[in-house]
Amino acid sequence: MPLNQPLITELQQEAAKTRKILERVPVERGEWKPHNKSMKLGKLAMHVAEITGWVSMTMLTDELDLTQFDYKLKAPDTLEELLAKHDEHVMQAVAVLEGCSDADFDRMWTMRRGETVYFTMPKHAALRMFAYSHLFHHRAQLGVYLRLLDIPIPGMYGPTADELEAMG
User: C-alpha distances in angstroms, 27 versus 14, 49, 78, 136?
Assistant: First the structure.
């Protein structure tokens, strides 16, 4: 099986789970944050919606230099905007992965800030760490925010306490 196929399958399955949690984000509470050092809810939600775009960036480039990366995280104005951003990045990522050969995944990818190199690794490893695991981390963080706001959490890998309670 080509390497892109399991990565596409995993991406699509995780994207559906991510969309379920994004659908519950109270965009009108975008300025809320649980701690002074925490990201605001709206920005965190948009970050979760945009991370899948890093799949395309990783596969279409050979490095990310953070001194050249002008990333302006903006909170969504509407839930529709948030979901559209997520859906757009998923669609683009799947299209990029579909066009990748096994050899593409073995090419090296570097993340740096100017002369400081954070890591250099094969793209298949960078995808897992930089894009996929990063998404899971922030999606879980978003779940904590929703819990603290007393918003029922959707199950990711099985039912949540909220869903079990609703079942009786």
Answer: 22, 13, 6, 20
Q: What is the pLDDT along the chain (168 residues), one digit of tens a residue?
A: 899 999 999 999 999 999 999 999 999 999 999 999 999 999 999 999 999 999 999 999 999 999 998 888 899 999 999 999 999 999 999 999 999 999 999 999 999 999 999 999 999 999 999 899 999 999 999 999 999 999 999 999 999 888 888 887
How buried is residue 143: exposed, middle or buried, by Cβ count under 10 Å (0-12/13-18/19+)?
middle
CATH code where residue 74 lies: 1.20.120.450
d(CA 38, CA 32): 9
Q: How far apart are the two ends of the chain, measured CA to CA in Å? A: 43
Q: How many domains does the chain have?
A: 1
Q: Which domain holds residue 82?
A: 4-167
| C-alpha–C-alpha distance, residues 61 and 123, integer Å | 10
pTM exceeding 0.85: yes
CA separation for the pair 61, 58 (Å, rounded): 6
List the Cα angle 119/63/54 in 5-degree steps. 95
